[in-house]
Every structure is written in structure tokens, then in C-alpha cells.
Amino acid sequence: MGFLDPASTEDDLRTGTNVEIPLWLAESLYSRRPPLVSVDLPKIYKEAYREILNADACTVDLHKLGQHFYDLGCYVAKHDIKGEVGNTLVNTFKQRFRMILSASTSTDSISSLQPLSNSERIRTANAATTEKALSLWLKRGDCPLSTANMVASHRKRKRAEMEMV
Amino acid sequence: MFGEKVIELIKESERNRDTIDQYNDEKVRQIIEEMHVLFKMNMADANATTENKSLWTTVQVRHSALERNKRCLLAYLHSRMGKIKTLRWEFGSALPSDVRELLSDSEYEWFSKYSTSLAAYMRSLGREIGYSGIDLTENLRPPKSLYVEVLCLTDYGKLELEDGDVVLLKKHSRHFLPTSECQTLIRRGVLRQIT
């Protein structure tokens, strides 16, 4: 199995070597009987970062550190011996909630979306759509008919492709 | 490392959530090739394991990679399936040719079957009251006025109204038409409502 570790020169991996493998591989190797690997937490879920997040989560740029912070955290929390990761995730989200709210209503979207992780961005986008729909409804009272969503984006993409050609 | 090509496939489908891309036949074939290779290596090693127990871990690793590839492929196909469903609701049962090219042959077959089932269902609605069926893919909001003013966005050609009048829809031409006629065309993007 030497191909898993790009730094090793031999064909076989010896027991006790540290290798970096993707999560899906780690999970399945960990759950075989007997477990073939033991999983160590990624950097972001370790003690040092946990302290930072508990202190002030709003200043952390989650997009740079780990785009899929929350989703990965849910998977990784299983391997944590002390069980702290779950609490950290919840606390981080609670602190960043205000940031998400302000990002959904702000007009300067690029700088406010920057420090958010992937799932936060999805929620922001949904919040912005809902707000727009509400304000539209309040303004006019009647809703003019419009082209369907997918048709409009398909047209836009075709136009963009035509311009490129 | 295994499983990298599938991730590219998934990223491709995630990049455009609103539109559907060309069915990436090439990549899918490469991934299935990779799975065949892994499977063959595993068969060879599994037969050899009876003598040498240490190969067991390698078999495990390759098996996880196979399962991962399968899962990601299924996720890619599933997301495309959802988008094709939306296509039926938004474009109608006749797809324009440039959209038709984006689907693979089996996807188009699925689309026609879905279209048939949907049409059969819609026809069965309201049978007790005496309607011949309700078109659910139309605009679901109640109309505000009997006639609407519309601007034509593309060269559509002749449109025949219910009372027999024929209207020529050219680009940038304005018309004042009954709402029931225009609804489908507005949803398809051919006309645009002006208020």
C-alpha cells in the first residue's frame, strides 16, 4: 500500500506511519473489524483553533480555513475522544448567526460573503431570495408573470457562450 | 489517488445549480474504466490472500474506492435527474433542440417517460367535475386581469388564438392579448409582460 504515502520509497507501508487520506477512505478503514487506521482530527478542530473559535468566532475567515467547516465537523466529531467538537460547532454557529443575517441584507455582497463557509453562504442566498420576494410582494401586491427560473438561466448561459465565441 | 475524477464530475454539476450541463459521457466512461481496473486488481489480490494475509488491507482500500466511485456516480446522475424534472415543468413537453443536446440518450428516454406519466396524471385531475384535465405546469398564481400587454422577445412566428385570430410574433413587437393565451409563452421566455 505504499502508493498512499507519496513521501515513502518502499512498496509497503509499515504500521505506525502517519498518512493523509481522504475522509471517505478513513471512515471505511476505521469501521472494519479490526480497525485498520486510527483517525486524528484535522487542524481546525484541534485545541488551538477551538480556543480561538470559543473566544470570538466572527473574526475567523471560515472560507479560507475550511469551506465545509460544519459538514466536515459533523463527520469528524465521531473521532474526537473528548466530545468537544460538537459544542464548538454549535457555539460557532450561534456567534456567526448575526453575520449571516447582515450578509443576506447587505448590498456589498463580496466582502460580506467572503469569510462565510459554504453552508453559511447557501443559507445567506436563501435568506436574500426570501427577502426579495417579500419586498416585491409588499410593493406591488400583484405578481407579474415571469419566465421560469431554469429557462432564464439557460438563456443567459447561451448568450454568454455566444459572446465568447 | 482514486476517486478524484468523480469529484470533478460532482463539482461540475454543483457549479451551475440553475442550468443543466452537457452529459459528460467521456468522464463517466473513464471512471467506469477505473472501477474495472480496481476490481480486477482486487480479484487478483483476493485470490492471493489465502497465502499472504497482509494483502487484506489493500483489498479493503480498493473496495472502499470502488464504493466511493459508485456513490459519487449515482449522486451525479441523481442531481441531473432532478434538473431534468424541472426542465419538464418549465420548458414543457417539447424541448428546444439546444437543450435536447445536453441530455444523453437514456436521459432523454427517461424524460419522455416522465412526460407521459405527468400528462396522464394531469389528464386524470378534475375528471369527476367534468374537466378533461388541468395543466399543472402553467402559472399557478391567479391572473390579475383578463388582457395583458406583452413584448415579444424572439421571432416566434404565428400564434393562433382561441377565437381564430392569428397574431404574428416578431422580435420587439407589442401585443395586447388575453392572459390565458400568453401564460405558457411568458413562462417559456418568448414574451415578456409589460405593466
UniProtKB/TrEMBL annotation, chain A:
Q: Which UniProt keywords apply?
A: DNA replication, Nucleus
Localization of this protein: Nucleus
**Superkingdom of origin:** Eukaryota
Q: Note the Pfam families from the entry.
A: Sld5
**GINS subunit domain residues:** 45-120
The record's annotation in PANTHER family points to:
DNA REPLICATION COMPLEX GINS PROTEIN PSF3
Q: Can you tell me which family this protein belongs to?
A: Belongs to the GINS3/PSF3 family.
What is its biological role? The GINS complex plays an essential role in the initiation of DNA replication. Required for correct functioning of the GINS complex, a complex that plays an essential role in the initiation of DNA replication, and progression of DNA replication forks. GINS complex is a core component of CDC45-MCM-GINS (CMG) helicase, the molecular machine that unwinds template DNA during replication, and around which the replisome is built.
| UniProt name for this protein | DNA replication complex GINS protein PSF3
Q: What lineage is this protein's organism placed in?
A: Eukaryota, Metazoa, Ecdysozoa, Arthropoda, Hexapoda
UniProtKB/TrEMBL annotation, chain B:
Q: Which residue range or ranges hold the GINS subunit domain?
A: 40-125
Q: Where in the cell is it found?
A: Nucleus
CDD domains to which the protein is assigned, alphabetical: GINS_A_psf1, GINS_B_Psf1
The entry assigns this protein to a family as follows: Belongs to the GINS1/PSF1 family.
UniProt xrefs under Gene3D superfamilies: 1.20.58.1030
Q: Where is the DNA replication complex GINS protein PSF1 C-terminal domain?
A: 144-194
Database matches in SUPFAM superfamilies: GINS helical bundle-like
Keyword Nucleus part of the UniProt annotation: yes
Q: Which domain of life is it from?
A: Eukaryota
Question: Which keywords annotate this record?
Answer: DNA replication, Nucleus
Q: Give the InterPro entries listed for this entry.
A: GINS_A, GINS_bundle-like_dom_sf, GINS_Psf1, PSF1_C
Q: What does this protein do?
A: Required for correct functioning of the GINS complex, a complex that plays an essential role in the initiation of DNA replication, and progression of DNA replication forks. GINS complex seems to bind preferentially to single-stranded DNA.
Q: What is this protein called?
A: DNA replication complex GINS protein PSF1
Transferase found in the keyword field: no
* Organism the protein comes from: Iphiclides podalirius (scarce swallowtail)
- Record note on quaternary structure: Component of the GINS complex.
